[in-house]
Each structure stands twice: as C-alpha cells, then as structure tokens.
Amino acid sequence: MERNLKNVLVISFGFLLLFTAYGGLQNLQSSLHSEEGLGVASLSVLYAALILSSMFLPPILIKKLGCKRTIAGSMCCYIAFTLGNFYASWYTLIPASVILGLGGAPLWSAKCTYLTIAGNSYAEKAGKNGKDIINQYFGVFFLIFQSSGIWGNLISSLIFSQASNKEEISEENLACCGAYDCMTDTTNTTGSTEPSSSLIYTLLGIYTASGVLAVLLIAIFLDQIKSDQAETEKEILETPSFWSTFLATFQHLKDKRQCLLIPLTMYSGFEQGFLSGDYTKTYVTCALGIHYVGYVMICFSAVNSLCSLLFGKISQFTGRKFLFALATVTNTACIIALLLWKPHPKQLAVFFVFPALWGLSDAIWQTQTNGLYGFLFEKHKEAAFANYRLWESFGFVIAFGYSTKLQVYIKLYILLSVLVLSMVTYGAVEYLEAKSSPETPTTTKKENGGPLTQETRM
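User: That's the sequence. What structure does it adopt?
Assistant: Structure tokens below.
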C-alpha cells in the first residue's frame, strides 16, 4: 500500500474511534446530567474553550510538537472529557470540558496540515495535481469519519436497552414532554427511569477504551513527517503569524457581506445545539427513554451524511438559492410542528421523522454555507473561515448556555427568529453580490466546504 495512503487511513480510523466515543457522549449530556443543567453547561463551556483555542493554540502546538504528537496529545483531551463523566459534578465535568475545548482546535488543524502535506508529497512524487490528491485524501477521511455518528449512538442505545427497570411512562409525566416542558431538573421526574450506574459506567468504559485505542493507533502506526516535509509544515505555519491571523479575522468584519453572514453562521450552531441538547432531552428521553437517544441520532447522522453527498453533487444544477430555500422551509416546518406536537410513545415513527428532516436541512446549512464562504471570500479564505468557526461556535455557546433557563417553546421561537433573520441577511448578501458582479455564476464551489465543515463540529 502507498505509504501516504496508509497514513491517511491511520488518521481516519483514529478519528473514527475517538469520535465514536465523543459523538455518542455529547448527545447524552443533556439527558445524563440534567441536574442544574450540568450537561448543557459543560457543552457551552466546551465550545467557549474551543473559540479561545482556535485563536492561538494550533500554530504554536504544531510548530513545537509536530503534527503527530499534536494529534495524539489532543486526543488525550477528549479522553479526559470521557473520564470526567465517570463522576460528573461541576468540579470534574466543567474542567474536563475546558480541556477538551482547548484540545479540539489543535487536533483538527494538525489533521488538516498532515493530510495537506501528505497529499502534496505524493502528488510531487507521482507528478499529479496536489489539489486533486488532497481532495481525494480528505474524501477518504470523511467517508470513514462520518460513520462515527452511527457507531457511537448505536453503542449507547444497545447498552441502555439492557436496563431491567424500564417503566411505563404515565400520562401525567408525558404532559411535561415537548415544547411546553415543565422545566424539571431531572429526567426521571419527567420521563423514563434513569439508567443504572453500572450501565453508565459500562458505556463510559467502552468510550474510554475507544479513545485510548485511537491514541495508540496514532502513536504506533502514524509516520512522523520527514525533515524535508517538516520544513514545508513550518512554512505553512509561519507564513501567517498569530497576531496577523487574529487581526485579519476581525478586520474581515469590515466586509459588509461577512457581517451579513453572521446570523446565518450562528444559526448553524443554534440548530445543531437544539437537536443535541433539547430535542434529545425534552422529546426523546422524556417520552421514550434515554435508550432511544442513540437510535434517533443515528437517523440524523445517516440522513445528514447522505444528503451532504447528494446536495454537494446537485448544487451545480440547482444553485445555492434553491437549496437554502429548501432548508429554510424544512426547518420552519419542523419548528412549527415541534411547537404543536405533544410527544407520545405510541407515535414512535414521528420521533425519527424530525431528526431525519433536521439532518436534511443541516446538510444544506453545512455544505452550502461553507461553499458560500469559499465563493465570496476567495482571496481571504483564512480570515473568512476563521470567522465561520468563531460565529458558529458562538451560536453553540449561546444555545447550550440558555438551554436550562428557558422553556423549549421559547427556544423554538428564538430559533425561528434567528432563521428568519438569517434568510433576510443572506438575501441581502445575494443582492449585493448580484449587484457588484452580475455575470458571476452562483453555483457553489464544493471543494471549499468539505474539511472545514467538520472542524466547527468538533
């Protein structure tokens, strides 16, 4: 096997093992640790730390440690978060969330740097176009990586399905589920019985082992970058200094189009935060039980992956305006339906319809917003995508931050308001773009949206 491809596969399966654990655990935070909103508070702190981390840590760590050690070390930060869940309290889970947030940005930056260097190295030897090889390597990576959403959720649901103390949920308790929830502190007062400690520890043990395997896989099988390639790596990292990148990120806000895209970018964080933080707790866990959370999120992940591939292909024929309109109509319909729907165990299929439709619209938000940034800011991609990461993460922080303070129906109204504002400002961007360059094609550049989409989603 070609050596560079072997390294791509090692990184891909390492990330698969790591995010099998983290992805499944993130979706359970609001249900497992609902007391005083500890679970969603930890996620809010996590994304706040990620914002700070992305501003200065990646170039420093990669320059000092190299890509391989940075990836392995950052993966240990994710393991620390899993360990913090064994004895979840404000004194263990919040520091663990900070550690994970600080390790998140260096992990993804080191991965992108490594794959880029590997692609250019092979292209130089084979006499091929470096951009084409890099795109192929990222395609292999995401093909393997995106299945982590299925495996992590499947493990959690299979384990929690073993609970012997499942109880019939009373109609009185079901009245507290849905948009007009009762704002209770614990899931077992509004829904099914909380899983036993032994099952929780079993799940966390599997997730920890998965993370440790990921670190070992990277440490043992991933090749160090050779000296000549390391020079290339240093050039990549030294070209923009920290302060120049930092200032460029905020100077980019002088562009009207970037300011107008802030609501749309933040909405991406809001809508993902609602699904993983609120829908899983107040609809699924409350009415069906925590063992269904994994199955429901598998549905979201599967539809999201398939639609990301589909919309990436058809956008050249439909244009981005049609796809944004489709996502807006789909999300609006879901929000209105969630406001009106009273979840009941007898309506099992409906619990899966919402995440499926949400996955369809999220695929559009991710692929087309990334593509839009690449298309509009082709000469300032670094500053533009730094803004993308900043504002989407800020959306996550806000969504998780107010999660325990407001009833679900208020959060749905906020979500709808941000969506409407996003489409108004997006329309203004399209108007400005058409006015300044009427002959510019409006189809998105798909290649600008791939890898960066996942960076913002940890």
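Residues 117 and 233 are 7 Å apart (CA to CA).
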